[in-house]
Each structure stands twice: as C-alpha cells, then as structure tokens.
Description:
The protein is an alpha/beta fold. About 45% of the residues lie in helices and about 15% in strands.
Amino acid sequence: MRVTMIGSGYVGLVSGACFADFGHVVTCVDTDASKIEALNRGEIPIFEPGLGDLVAKNVREGRLSFTTELAGPVRGADAVFIAVGTPTRRGDGHADLSYVYQAARDVVAEIDGFTVIVTKSTVPVGTGDEVERIMRETRPDADFAVVSNPEFLREGAAIGDFKRPDRIVIGTEDERARAVMEEIYRPLYLNAAPLLFTQRRTSEVIKYAANAYLATKITFINEMADLCEAVGANVQEVARGIGLDNRIGSKFLHAGPGFGGSCFPKDTLALMKTAQDLGSPLRIVETVVAVNDQRKRAMARKVITACGGSVRGKRIAVLGLAFKPNTDDMREAPSLAIIAALQDGGAHVVAFDPESMAPARALLNDVTFAADPYSCIEGADALVIITEWDAFRALDLDRVKLGLRAPVVVDLRNIYRSEDMRRRGFSYSNVGNA
C-alpha cells in the first residue's frame, strides 16, 4: 500500500516508520522545511527509544521518505493520514483544529481517484464530519472516504504499542474504506491484534474516553496517597491491594506528582469543554482536571515542608524534568510547576534529566543545568526526584548523602524504600507513605 502521512511530529513519524516497517511505501509530509531537512539527514527531532534505527532502516530500504511537497505523495496514495497537532486553543480550552482543517483542504485539492482520508490526530467528536464537509465543499468531484483511526501510543514505548497493540479502532461505515484499512493493518494479523470497526463518531469518543479514564485512575490514586499520608497507610500497598482485582487492574495506579505530557492534560480539557458545550457535563473529568492542576503545586509544598518550612536561599537539586521517563517531552510536565513554585519560594534550582535538557532550557528560567546526577546533587540543601528514569533508581546513596549539604530527599515517584532511606540517615519523604 502507498501511505502518505501529513505531519511528521510524534504520531506521524512513529506511525509512518512503523507502517514502512510493515512493508508499505510511506511518505511523511511536513510544512516545516527544517524538520524535513533534519529527517533527510537522519536526525530524529524527538527522543523515542528505537525510532532512529527504525527510520534509518526503512529509509535505507526505500520504503520511507520525507518531503515538504504535498501533491505527488497525495496523488499516489491509497490512504492519507492526517497527523497534525491539535493543541489546546487559547482562551477557551477547546482543541485547536485549524491544522486539521487546513490539511483537509490541502489534501482534497490533490487526490486522484478513490482515497481514504484518515484522521490520526486526536480530535473531538464530530471532527470527521466537519473534515468531510470541508473536503466536499472544497472539491465536490473528489472521490474519498473520511475515516477515524485514533492512536494509542505511549511515549517511550510507542513502537511496541504500534506493532503489538491492544486494539486498532477504525471509525467508518464505508466498505471501500474498510477494505483499505484492513489491508494497511493486515501485517498485524499474525499478532492477533483486534480491529474494532465502529461508526466514525464512536471512534472519536473512544480515544477521549480512554485517555480520560486513565487520567482518572492516576488522579484517584494520587488522592488516595494524600489520605494514606493523613492516616498512616502506605499507598503503594493500597495500589497493589486494589490492582490485584481484575476489575480494576494495576496499571496507572502509581501515585506521584500528577499527570503531564501531550495527551492527558490536553485531551481531558478538550473532552470537558466539548461535553459542557453539548449540555452533558462530565463532572468526574472536570474534577480530574482541577485536582491534577492543583497537585503539581502541592508537590512543591511537600518539598518546602521537608526543608523545614522554607526554601528561601536554598539550593534544590531536581532529578528528572520530562513528564515521564524515556521521552524528552516537556509538555505539561509536573517539573515545570514544581520548579516555578520552588523559585517563587526563593529557591535556586539545579536540574538534570538524561534527555529533556534542551527543551527544558527553553521553558525554565534561572535554572542551572547539571551534567550528571551527582554534580546536580553536589552542595544542594535537598534532592527532589520528579521523573523516575532508570538512571535514578540505583543511585550511589553514600555518594548522594556525601554530596548533599543536608540529607533531605523528596522522592515524588516512590522509587526508594522509606525504611532503607531512613536507616541510611536520610530525612526522606515520598508520596502516600507517612
């Protein structure tokens, strides 16, 4: 199959590389000439384990290419995937669909023969209808079908998620489009990946509902962590105790500083706003959004408390900036709010992250960036662990204690054991364990 991917960001690049690895011929199109030039030099603009090798292999074997030119790749495509950004719109919290709609106008002008137009971007319910309306209004003679095919990729594990998915959701009632989508995903049949065909609007709701539910699980266990601290219980054991119930499951029950990234904050807010506009408010989702926003600053207060009630004039070492490990994504990362609150309290912050230092520099002011964890810790009045990178899970604790001016450790990801840390002489605080 010949596939064209409009947008070479996280979703477009990962999806395009994986489709090419299936054996399809894929062209990734982007209006950002500098990004395309970098990709053609073999430079990957994001950090995702294994992506560089996968892109290089498929470029080398002639199945994957990158261009700013739209016309040729679209005219020759069996399917055109729209994978452009849908950021939160300024002012009202809705998803900004201007890039999706512009892509629809540009694509329909170039298609030649029956073409499946696939919305891969995360979009509110009804977007597929509007995309179809725009395309038919722009070019009434065009032969196409608009399909919803949401992505369910976890940053840091995206290639595995794409190649071994829990499910593939495809929203279409057009038989020709269904046949094309079945052929595109046919290489996954050996992995018994279930293809779920639904109506287009149902597919759009599935994506938002999935992210909102996972965000709710995270927020639930974070509130349970606060209760555990108040009553002297252990939230990790609570999470294990409820997670062993198959009706609940253990995933996304890890207490911490709140969720961030490119999906959960944006998608919960967009779903909440859509539901409010339709007169069907989602009270649980509204609460999740509010609680998560408040939690990040609350984690800074935890650090201030651990430092004796004030961080003014103190040097605070922060390990981990990205919103989760195995990515360099700083979008809505808890570290941003936590560091800002510590700086508001008069602290000087020194930070280290294995992959996200470059994007963090553009977002954080008056932060000193260290070369490694131990130089970050050296001379600090407290250590705060915000992101649970593997590199932070087995620090030389004797060296950490020697480097700190005061043996204060605030572990916001619960990667160390309270008993061990206190036995070693640390003043240790974590989340959900009094």
